[in-house]
## 1
Amino acid sequence: MDVGFLKPLFDRPGPWACAYIDTSRTTEDAPTRRRLRERFVADRLSRQGADPATRDALVARLAGEPPARRSEGRALFAADGEVVLDVPLAVSPGDVETSWSPLPRAAPLASLRGEWPSCLLAHIDRAGADLELRDAGGVRPSGRASGGLRRARGHRSVPADRHEWHYRNRVENASEHTAERVADEILRQWSDSAAQLLILTGDPRERRAVLDRLPEPLRARAVEARHGNRAPGSARELLEAEIDGACEEHARAHLESVLDAFRAGRGRPGGQGGSDHLGVSPSGTAEGVPAVVEAMRSHQAATLLLGQAGGDARHEVWIGPDADQLAVQRAQARALGVRAPEPARADDALMRSAAVADTEVLLVPEGVPGPAGGLGAVLRWHV
C-alpha cells in the first residue's frame, strides 16, 4: 500500500483524535443509529482526553455527508480543532474505535483500507484512446490520444480495382500511426504517474496493436480487459468487475513477490541466524522492533511488513516531532536530539516514517508466513 496520502497527518503536531466507523449497515433506523454513534464517539473521545474543539470537529464531520466513494467504513483523523483526513475503508472495522494519542492511529489502515493499486486505463478504438487514472483520490480523466482515420458517419463507398489496394493501405497505415500515438501517450503518462497497473480496454485489434508497441517492462504491467469500449451502452459493470479482479491479482502477486524476497533474505548466509545484534541481515531484510526501527529511521526500508499475528506492533517506542526521531529506548531518542520523547505504538510510529520516506506498507494476512513478531522490512540496499 502506498501511504503517501497520509503525509498531511504528519505536517502538524498532535495530539490526534481518531475514529474508525462502520458504514456498511443501512437500516430503517439509520438516523437513530447515527445519532447514537455520534454521541458514543463524543463521549469516548472526551474520556480519552480530547480537547472539545477537536472532538466537536470530528463529530460534526461524522454527522455530515460521507465521502463520495461507497465504502464499508470511514477513518477520521482530527487535530487542533480540524478534521485533516476522512478516509473510506474497503473493510468494515466491525465496531467504533476511537483514540487520542500523540500520533494518529494510522496502522489499522493497513488491514481496513484495502489494496487499491493505482491504475492507468486506456479505452482504445480506431480513432485513438481516452485515458483515465484511478488511485486513492478516485477516478479522473488524464488525457486523450488520437490519430489516423476517423470513422465516417453513414455509408462510405470503397474504391474498386487498382485503387482498392491504395485505400486499404492508407487505412492500415493510419491505424498503425494511431496505435503508435496511443502507445507513446500511454508511456508518457505512465512515466509521469505513480501507476502500478496498466489496463487496456476497447476493440481487440486496436488494443493488441497498442500493446505490441509498448516497451517490454510496461507490457509486463499491462492487462487486457475483454469488456468495455467507448461505444454508448457498453457493459460498464462487467468492465468494473474485470478491473477489480486485475487489481486484486496484482496485489496478491506483489505481496507474494515481496514475501519471497523477505524469506530468501532470511535464508541466505548472513540472513536469519547471521543477522547483527539489531536483527538487520546483510542480505537485505530486517526483522523485529529494533531492526525495523533502525531501517526506517535511516530510510533504508523499501517495504514495511506488518503482520496480523505477533505482538511487536503494540511494542512501545519513543518518538520526537520528526519522523526520523524514532527509537526503541527513551535515552536513544534523546541522543537523536529529542528534548521530550513521547511513547507511541511501534506500528503507528513506523507508519509515520513510511509515509514521510515513501516506503511501501504491506499487510501480511493471518496464516501467511511472515516476519516473526509481526514486524519486518525488505531493504532498499544492504551491506
## 2
Amino acid sequence: MAERGGRKLPRRWVVSAATMSLAGIATAAYGATRARDDDGAGSSPGPSPAKPIPTTPSVDPVKEARARIEAFVKPYKGHLAVAVLDRQGTAAVTAGTARFETASIVKVNILAALLLRQTPPGKALSSGTRRLAEAMIESSDNEATETLWLKIDGSRGLTAANRALGLRETKPSAHWGITTTTAADQLRLLTALTSSKGPLTPQDRTFVMGLMNKVIPEQRWGVPAGRTPDARSVYVKNGWDTADADGGRWIVNSIGRIVEDRHDWLIAVLSNHHVSQEAGVRVVEKAATYVLKEMRAATADDAPAPG
C-alpha cells in the first residue's frame, strides 16, 4: 500500500583486590603457624587451612538493560519490537520477534538492492536513477519507489539482494510496502549498510547514509527522538501506513543511526495496531528514547572500541 503523506553483548568473573589480599593473609598465617609447630616439641596439629573465599560474578549491565527493555516492550503484546547495536562496542539488544509490514522503511532495502546490481560494484548511478533514489529516501516518494522496484526486478530482486545483505527474516511481497520483516533483520540491514565487511562499496555506503541524513524535516521523527545534544550525525527512514487486515489501524516504523560521543548506534523500532499515525509516532519515539537511555547507562563504563 502506498503511504499517506505528511508527518502523517558474558562479563568476566572478577576476584577483587580485597579478596586476593584476604586470601594471601590467611595463607601466610597458616604457614607461620605450621612452622612454629614443627620447631616445637608439642604434638598440636595447628589450625586447619583457611577455606577459600568464594568469588561472585560481576553484574552485567547490558544483561540488566536487556531485561528492562524486554519489560518495556512486553505490555505491547507483540505490537512493538526494538533492536539496537553500538558499532563502537559490543552492546546489542533485541526485544520482540514479531513480523511487521515494512511500509516505507523497505525503501532503504530497495536502494541497497539497486546498488548491488551495479556493474562493476560501486559504479555510480545514472543521474536519472540517482534522482529517483534521492526522492525515494529523502521524501519517501512512492512513484519513484515504484520505478526503482521494477528496476530491481521487484520481490525477486529484493530476495536476491537480501541473501547478500545477510537478511534472514524479511519476506518480500508483490507490493513493496507489504514486505514483512523483524526488528532483528532491520538491524542486520543497517549493519550491512555501515560495515566494511558488508557487500556494498564504501562509496555506496556513503551514498545510502547521505540520503538518510537528508530526510526532509517533517519526516525526521522516530529514531531521531533518541538523540543527545552531542549527537554528530542522525540518519533515519520511517514507514507508516494503515493495515486493512487490522481494521485500518496504523503501522509505524523507524530505522536509523545516531553517531554521538563514544557511541555509534544502529536502531530499529517496528510497531503496529495504532489508532492513528500520531499515536504510533509517540510510541516509536518513546521506545527509541527509552532503549537508547538504557543502553547508554549500561555502557557508561565501557571504553570505546578502536576504529
## 3
Amino acid sequence: MADHCAVTIPLRRIDRIRLYINTARKSLAAIRAETGADYLLNGTLYDMVSFLPVCHLKADGEVFCRPAYSVAGYAWDRGADLSMVTLPDEARQNYIACTPLIVGGRRVEKLTYDPGQGGKRGRSAMGIKDGRLALYCTRDGGTMARTPEQLRDDLLAAGWESAIMLDGGGSSQCDFAGQQVESGRAVHDLILVYLKKEGNTVSETKTVVLDAGHDASNLANRSPDGTYYEHEFCLDMAKRMSAHLRRCGVTVVETRPDGTAVSLAERCAMANAIQDLDLFVSLHSNAAGGSGWSSARGWSAYLYGPGGEREQAAQAILARVREAGTAVRSAPIVYDPSLYVLKHTAAPAVLIEHAFHTNEADVENLKSDVWRAAMAEAQARGIADYLGVAWVSETPQEPAADEELEQAVDALAAAGVIDSPDRWKALEYTDKSVRALLIKMAAKLA
C-alpha cells in the first residue's frame, strides 16, 4: 500500500469534476467501480456521528453545508473552469472548502483548523499548479505523515499556486489512475475527476483564442484627447493577428468577432469549451491613474502566476516584440492572479497590454497603421514560435498597374520615340532604363 500519491492533471484535459455524496457509505473501490472515474480523492471534513459535512460544500447545484463564515475554496461548474474563490459562491454549481493553505501564490501564515486535525497525520489536498488540477494524498500512520503546516510548506515548495487541505487522518484515501492510498473508512464525500476521452486520431492542428478586450459600450478606456479608443484597437489587432495565424494553419477563435458586447464570463466559457485549447490571448492597451497624460509607457504581458506553459508563451511573444523594436516596460512580464480572464481560463493564458493610451508617444503608435501591422506580425510570430508552428510569409501582392505610366508609354510609342511598348510597361525602372529612354527621346528630337 502506497504511503504517498500525487498527481497533476491539465485542466484542459478534464471533462468533469464531480463531488460524489456518499450517502450509502460505500468504499472507495466500490465508488470507482460504480462511476468509472479516472481519479478519486476523499473530500471535506464531516461529523463522524451525524455523517454530515461541516465545511462549505455544494454539489450539482445543491448546498450540503453553508457555515456562517467565508473562506477560500474551489468552485466550478463543469471542471476545467475550476478556480479558487471566496465561498460561498452562489453562481457556481459546485464548491468545496476546508483549510486554505496557499492563496494567490502565497502561503497562509496562520492556519485555521480544529485540534483534531493537528499533529502528524495522513493528509489530502487539492489545488492548482501551472494550469493543472493538483491532487495529493498520504496514508495515516505512514512515513509521509505531515502536520498541516508541513503539508502547506511541501506544496508551496512543489510550486502549487493555491491549495486547500481536505479531510485527513483515517479519512485520507485516493485512487489516482491506479495509485492508491487505502482506508477502511467510508467518507461523506469524494472528489471524482473524469478525463476527456481521446479518439483514434489526434489532430495536430493548434487552436488559439484571441480575446479583443472590451467592446464599443466601453467609452471610458480612451486617450485623454479622445482620439483613441481601446475597444477599436483591440478588435483591429485581433483581426490582424488572426489573419497571420490562420495563414500558418492555426485554428483561431475570436471572442467578439463582430465587435458586440461579450461578458468576461462568456469569454472564459467560450475558451473552456474548446477541447485541448493551446493558448488564450487577451488583447488590451494600458492606462495610468488619473485623467490626463502620463509618463508610463511600453508593452507588457500579464500572467496568473510564474512558470509553465503560459510563461513560455509570454516569453516567446516578448522576444518577437523586442525584435520589432517597440518600447517594452522595464518589467515586461507581470503576475496578477486577480485578473478575471487569467483566473478563469483553463488553457495557458496571456493578457497583453500593448502600450499606454495615457501616454502621448504610445498613443501615436496605437493609432498608427504601420505600428499595428508590425505588432500584429511580431505577436503572431511569437505565438507561432510557442506553438511550434512554421511561419508562413504573406504572398507578395502583384503591383497595381500604373495607368499614368501606361498612357505615357503609349504616347511615346505613337510618336515613334520607343518601340515594344509592352516591354517598357513591364520594366522595373532603374537609372539604366531611364538613361536609355532619355537617349531615345533626344535622338527623336534630333
## 4
Amino acid sequence: AARHGLPAERVLLTAGAAEAFVLLARALKVRRPVVVHPQFTEPEAALRDAGHTVDRVLLRAADGFRLDPAAVPEDADLVVIGNPTNPTSVLHPAAEIARLARPGRTLVVDEAFMDAVPGEREALAGRTDVPGLVVLRSLTKTWGLAGLRIGYVLSSPEIVAELERAQPLWPVSTPALAAAVACVEPAALAEAERAAHGIAADRARLVAGLASFAGYGVRVVESAEGPFVLVRVPDATGVRRRLRELGYAVRRGDTFPGLGGDDWLRLAVRDEKTVEGFLTALTTALTAHPRPPTHQPR
C-alpha cells in the first residue's frame, strides 16, 4: 500500500497474480466478460472455469496489436487487458485503457510486467480516479521468484473485500510475505528500475539483431516495451524445434488467441552474450532443412 500511495484496504495479497484471476472470476457477478487478446490465457481460462461465457476482442497484427477502445462492446461489464501485454510486448497508453472504464463495469488491468518498463510509464497502479479499476501486480517476474507465488490486487475497498471473501485461508506463505516486503523496499525498487533500463538496452540489441533476418521473413512487433518480443517467423514450429536442439527455448505463439497459424514466436530478452548466441543459433535454425524422417512408411 505504501509503495503505491494507497490505504491498506485497497490492497489484497494473493498467491501470485494467477490466483487473482480465479478470485475475480468466482467472486464478481458479471454478465458479459470480455478479454482483449492476444494476451495471457489464464484470465479467460479462469472465467470459463467459473461458468462464464467469455467474449474476445482480437487486436490485429496489422495495427501493431494496439488497443482500440471502441472495439470493446459497450455492454461488457468486465474487461480484461494486459499492460504491457504478454505476448505482444505492447505498452498501451494509460489514457486509452482508462477510456474503457464505465459505471457498472470492472476494468481489470494485468500489470505483471510493468516493473520491467523504465519509470513504469503508463501504469494505472495507484490510481483511484478510474471507476471499477482493478490492477494486478506480480512480485515474481523481475526477481525470478515464480515458485513463491506472490502478487497483489489494487482496487476499491469494496472489490477487495469481495475478493477476500472468496479467497482460501492462508493463501500466501510466510516466505512469500518476506519476499513481498523485501521487493518493495526503496533499495529493491531502485534495483528494479536499474534492471528495467538494462532490459530496455538488451531488448534494443535483440530487436536490432532480428532486423538482419528480414530477408527470411522475420518481423518483430514494433515498439516492444516488455522483457520479451513477439516475432513473426515462417515455419515457427520447425524453427522452434531446431532452436531447442541448439539449446534455446522460445515460446510458441499459436496457443494465444489471435495468433493462429504457424508463424509466431515469443522471445525472452536476455543479456548481450546470450542474445549473440541466440542470433547465431537462429541463423542455423532458419537456414537448416528439416531432418528427414527416421524411417520410411512401408
